[in-house]
Amino acid sequence: VSWTPEDTLLTILPNDTIQFAVHARHQWAEQFDIDWWVDEGDTISNDTTVTIRFEELGEFIVYCSISDENVSATRRWHVNTVEFYLRSFLPDTTNITTRRNTPIDLTLDVAFVDGIELEYTWSQTGRIENHEFPNEDSIHVNYDLTGDYRILAQITDGQRVIENDWNISIVSSLWWWWPHELQMEVPNDTTMDF
């Protein structure tokens, strides 16, 4: 027996539809009994596939039971219908190692219902903490100092908060230099230590 979707934890927006399917094959059984239902409700289908529209906010459990005269199996999907959720993020790995002065673009792909206003907050900890980021769904960072950093992104509608964070390791043969400024203006006959 195989099931679609494979993931049993699903997050969607109100009025989205999901197609569920069961695929079964048995060398002795020619026919299977299939039942689909949501939460504790009645059977909604006896077919191998069913498409369900989730119109309201909330948590739902979709069940599929398949059986022949000897064996039975049941699958449950947990469907959470919300006003917004993090669909994906880039880079899609949360542990990044890159060389100093390599630009990094961090992006959040958020699905949300029309009319909702979201606020994006980006914060950084690590060797340099004082960064100001825009209230947008993506940022561009370029580190000129090696070290380990963490960038935390938060999305909120004023009630719910969704977070995603990246651990960033900046590597280089240079750890520190002085003066840190790479261009300077100094008076003539000035002695400087580098």
Report on the structure:
With 194 residues, the chain is mostly beta strands. Helices cover 0% and strands 52% of the residues. It is built from no helices and 14 strands. It has a 4-stranded mixed sheet, with no helix packed on it. Strand 6 (58-67) and strand 7 (72-81) form a beta hairpin. The mean pLDDT is 91.
Average pLDDT, rounded to a whole number, is: 91
Main-sheet strand order equals 2-7-6-4
Oligomer: single chain
Structural class estimated from helices and strands: mainly beta
Count up the helices. Answer: 0
The Cα radius of gyration reads 26 Å
Broad shape: elongated
Approximate helicity band:
under 10%
Low-confidence stretches: none
Strand elements, count:
14
Report how far the terminal alpha carbons are from each other.
69 Å
Largest beta sheet, briefly?
4 strands, mixed
Strand and helix order:
EEEEEEEEEEEEEE
Strand content: over 45%
